[in-house]
Amino acid sequence: MLRVLAHVQRHLDEALSPNDLARVACFSPHHFHRIFRGMLGESVMGHIRRLRLERAAWQLKVGDRPVTRVAFDVGYEAHEAFTRAFGAMFGLSPSAFRERHRKLDYPASPSGVHFDPDGSAPRLEEREMTAFDDNVRIVDEPARRAVFLRHVGPYDEVGETWDRLMTWAGPRGLIGAGTQMLGLCHDDPEITPADKVRYDSCLVVAGAVEVEGPFGLVDIPGGEYAVYRHVGPYSDLGRSYIELLGRWLPASGRAAVDVACVERYWNDPENTPPQELETDLCVLLEPR
Fold first, then answer.
1. How many CB atoms neighbour CB 210 within 10 A?
2. I need a labelling partner for 205 at 20 to 30 A (CA). Which of 4, 10, 152, 184 fits?
């Protein structure tokens, strides 16, 4: 992550994407954004935007280039858009900020990381363990095969996909008391457009199963998984993912495999109050 922070500081003039920064970090692109948010307390692109605006503030204080040129240098083609973004961060218009003769102070950031004219990266302090860490288990899961139906769109709209899968699977005898209901989450909705988020509703099966049309078979790899039991509404799953991938994982000394996260559902959401829903978040780990 220190390599990423130094890279961002030195390349603020260039196009920076989460995938490019994941390669700098040698992290899985699939998990990088949540790792970054968990460690830094802000999104990747939010961090980059903030540092560019802080650099603009520094340029306004130490240089004499026109405000429009400073705006263009930090990626704003419209002066009005730059003025709004700058004012939201510093509480002043760029021109008024330049005219005030005082020490340059950046607004507080979650991580304490700020723009450095020398392009250096700050230290990241090791975090203390929290109660969350005590609830993460390392579980050796077997390889499984599942019937699945894909949903493309926001995660909060997967209910219809589950209804179609259950309606198809029921008459074929694929649903029983011990049937595992899993979700494969391929995309992070914070960086993937809502209409392109991919999610697979899965029923674990044993033996040969014939599928047709939009229904398919998927092999879920076995191995060591980091498993956290989330209790509460599905709408809060994002925060638990950030804790698991962004805080527990870096402190654990383990690395995640670049595959979809697996969700295991223990309740029927139609008959369970949202605050009582139980969901296992399962992340496949690289071998030790």
1. 8
2. 152
- Strand ranges for the chain from DSSP E: 136-141, 144-152, 181-185, 198-205, 215-220, 223-231, 261-265, 278-284
pLDDT tens digits for range 198-224: 999 999 999 889 999 999 999 999 999
Question: Residue 55 is which amino acid?
Answer: R
Whole-prediction pTM value?
Answer: 0.82
pLDDT at 191: 85
Strand order of the sheet with strand 223-231? 136-141, 223-231, 278-284, 261-265, 181-185, 198-205, 144-152, 215-220
Q: d(Cα 74, Cα 54) in Å, to the nearest integer?
A: 10
pLDDT band at 131 (very low <50, low <70, confident <90, very high): low
Of 72, 15, 18, residue with least CA distance to 45? 18
Which amino acid, 179? T
Specify the pLDDT at position 125. 62
